[in-house]
Amino acid sequence: MDRRSVEIVVYGAEQLCPSCVNLPSSKETYEWLEAAVSRKFADQPFSISYVDIHNPPDDEAKRDFAMRVIEEDMFYPVVLIGDEVVGEGNPKLKTIFAKMEDCGYTPAS
C-alpha cells in the first residue's frame, strides 16, 4: 500500500479547558502523543505539530481551525489527522493508532 506521510496537528492552549481539569495540558498531550506514535510506527515518516489556538501560525487552514475550536467550544486538545478530528479533550491512542493504520502505517513489531 502506498503510504503518505500524515500530519498530526494538536490544537490547544496554555490554559486547561474548563471541562478538562485533572487532565494533562495540551502541550503535555502533544509531547506524549509524539512519543507514543513514534514508538508504535517506528521508522515511518509522519509529522506532528502543536498549534496554540490563541496564537495560531500564519498557515490559513491552521488559523481557521484554531478559530473553530474557540467558536465551537471544542474540548481541547483537539487532535487532527489530515482534516479529520480523531481526538478531543482526552484523545485516545487506540483511535489515533487506528486512523494511522487506515492511512497505511504498520505497527512496529
TrEMBL record:
Superkingdom as given in the UniProt entry: Bacteria
SUPFAM superfamilies: Thioredoxin-like
Protein name: Disulfide oxidoreductase
Organism: Bacillus infantis NRRL B-14911
